[in-house]
Amino acid sequence: MGKILAIAAVGPDGVMGKEGHLPWHYPDDLQHFDRSTRGHVAIMGYNTYLSLPRRMIDERTCLVLSKKHSINEPHVTTLSDVAYLHPFLQKTNFVIGGGAIFKLFFDRRLIDEAWITHIHKSYAGDTYFPTDQLTSWDQHLYRENEDFSIIYYKRCHGS
């Protein structure tokens, strides 16, 4: 099995979504997401899948976790449980959302690395990233500008 990383953009209070979409628009962060995940496996929930532009689906192998829905499209495999992921994983795999999917993967200790864009401005939202999961992880600043900071996280042994 390859490595599984989380990738997300979050506001200061952990907000990462509002009504099925990002509550902000930062093209530089979207480019970071696109460059990082293109050509790799993207693991997501059904609502995250619905929110993605078509090109994001076509340029990735998408694994959609859903107990209620099935998707019959090229590049997309629907799985009813995280236990069925293993045969579909490649060398590099990204969990891209939503909030419940991130929580599931962190709770099962399946994520050992994360690329988190910390948006500096607060936005209203209804979907949250479990930022408390990263408090004891090693952190390295990757890039920073006036709007956001991209931090690379790696799980410390024992955490």
Structural write-up:
This protein has 159 residues and is an alpha/beta fold. It has a single domain (3-142), classed as Dihydrofolate Reductase, subunit A (3-Layer(aba) Sandwich). It has 4 helices and 10 strands. It has helices at 27-37, 46-51, 54-58, 99-107; strands spanning 3-10, 15-17, 41-45, 61-65, 76-79, 92-97, 113-119, 127-128, 138-144, 148-154.
Residue ranges: pLDDT <50 for 5 or more in a row?
Answer: none
Mean pLDDT: 94
Q: Please tally the helical runs, counting DSSP H or I stretches of 4 or more residues.
A: 4
Find the structural class using helix and strand composition: alpha/beta
List the helices and strands and how they pair.
Elements: E1 3-10, E2 15-17, H1 27-37, E3 41-45, H2 46-51, H3 54-58, E4 61-65, E5 76-79, E6 92-97, H4 99-107, E7 113-119, E8 127-128, E9 138-144, E10 148-154
Parallel strand pairs: 1-6, 1-7, 3-4, 3-6, 4-5
Antiparallel strand pairs: 2-8, 7-10, 9-10
Task: Please sum up the structure shown.
By secondary structure, the protein is an alpha/beta fold. Helix content is 19%, strand content 34%. It has one domain (3-142): 3-Layer(aba) Sandwich (Dihydrofolate Reductase, subunit A), CATH 3.40.430.
List keywords for this structure.
two-stranded antiparallel ribbon, 4 helices, Dihydrofolate Reductase, subunit A, 159 residues, eight-stranded mixed sheet, alpha/beta, 19% helix, globular
